Amino acid sequence: MKTVLHIITSLGSGGAEGVLYRLCAHSNNYKHIVINLTSKSFYNKKLEALNVNVYNIEMDKNFFKFIEIIKIIKREKPDTVQTWMYHADFLGGILAKLLGVNRVFWCVRNSNLKFGQSSFNTILVSKICSFLSYFIPNRIISCAHVAMDYHTSVGYKKNKFVVIPNGVEANTFYYDREMCRVKNEKKTPTIGMIARFDRQKDHGNLFQALKSISQRGYEFKVRLVGRGINNKNQELSKLILESGLVVDTDVFLVDETQSIRQQIDKIDIHVLSSAYGEGFPNTISETMACGVPNVVTNVGDSAHIVGDYGIVVPHSDSQSLATAIIEYIDIRKEKRDWEILQKKCEERIRLNFSTITMVDKFETVWAE
């Protein structure tokens, strides 16, 4: 069996990490090994449960530990190296080529990088990678069309790109008719957003919209889930206070959790209010797979994911966001129409964004 060595910048709860995990869980044609450039994190236990050998290099503590990568590549002798995100593309790609690995594949996910929004270091590394893209990778895999378009516009070699949308884990994220029925019986809807607290996700835009909805006389609850979503977050606490909502009465905060499905089952309408930087937001496809309609900003491939079964609004426009959420609150009152929409959301994801399809596409690219 051939071996794929993955090199990734972290194993936190991000989208790239989730895709890597699903590849390892569902790929039957390759042995998978993972080098994590930083410390142990969210996906370590999950990968170890699959008996995947994971090396945690901790380069965030000591840059010169990159020597460990050289030792691992020499010892494991992988047929293919798949790198994830800019720093891993840069470092892992160069080391793999220097050590004689002929099959090197990059993965890029961002839909844009801007000074003041992304770190200078990340922007610099991406610029270097745009030059190296002509020499290092066999192919560059992108999760979103908008991410491919952005990278080719800043100099990446266009004919090396292939788009493989993220697949949804069907055993975890699926339509539960009884759960949806129970939720639909509730009078007060719960508006949720599953996203780490980050400028990119624009929680400020969300709370401006929620304030407007409240001022128009609508009743609702709010459930926020993700890294940094907790009472210690002073910036988030200020946003909630300014919106006129109250923590633990109107707004429920859930920090990073491995029980995402349990949180989705408590949400009626999912919102992603991102301002920039999205590629393929997994939370949209995962919630839709469970029958949760989405309101999203037109960032990354969000509009492509929801298709005809979600509402897309301009980013950084809280009034448009508020109007869209209200539209779904009103539709939800018509139970039959809402149930049809829930099922259509599930069908769109099942038919277009399955994990099995994603794995097949990765393996096809690796075998070219």
UniProtKB/TrEMBL annotation:
<dbReference type="InterPro" id="IPR028098">
    <property type="entry name" value="Glyco_trans_4-like_N"/>
</dbReference>
<dbReference type="Pfam" id="PF00534">
    <property type="entry name" value="Glycos_transf_1"/>
</dbReference>
<dbReference type="InterPro" id="IPR001296">
    <property type="entry name" value="Glyco_trans_1"/>
</dbReference>
<feature type="domain" description="Glycosyl transferase family 1">
    <location>
        <begin position="184"/>
        <end position="338"/>
    </location>
</feature>
<protein>
    <submittedName>
        <fullName>Glycosyltransferase</fullName>
    </submittedName>
</protein>
<dbReference type="Pfam" id="PF13439">
    <property type="entry name" value="Glyco_transf_4"/>
</dbReference>
<feature type="domain" description="Glycosyltransferase subfamily 4-like N-terminal">
    <location>
        <begin position="14"/>
        <end position="170"/>
    </location>
</feature>
